[in-house]
Design goal:
By secondary structure, this protein is mainly α. The chain contains 5 helices and no strands. It has a single domain (2-93), classed as Serine Threonine Protein Phosphatase 5, Tetratricopeptide repeat.
Length: 94
């Protein structure tokens, strides 16, 4: 499962987002609970405009130990996701 998490991270950095998403999904489905699986999955979702999925994964990370580097990354990304959601909602109101 660790291999899928690492593979997903590498593929995401190569902008092979669909492949990265598949690898991370498999890691999550197999029960690998490393927070980076969910942070990386959230980053891909954010890059693809899937804001609610990104938000869910970030919230999942932040339910755990908030003192980790993964949690710090999730907190930083959460601000971006929330701003994007507010912008999207504002566009829908126009």
């Amino acid at each position: 499962m660790l291999e899928r998490s690492v593979l997903g991270s590498i593929l995401a950095r190569q902008d092979r987002l669909e492949e990265a998403q598949s690898a991370l999904e498999l890691a999550a489905q197999l029960g690998y609970e490393d927070p980076y699986v969910f942070v990386n999955r959230a980053e891909i979702a954010l890059r693809q405009g899937r804001l609610s999925e990104a938000l869910g994964d970030l919230e999942r990370v932040l339910e755990g130990d908030n003192s980790t580097k993964a949690a710090a990354r999730a907190k930083a990304m959460l601000d971006t996701v929330m701003q994007s959601i507010r912008l999207a909602q504002g566009q829908n109101d126009v």
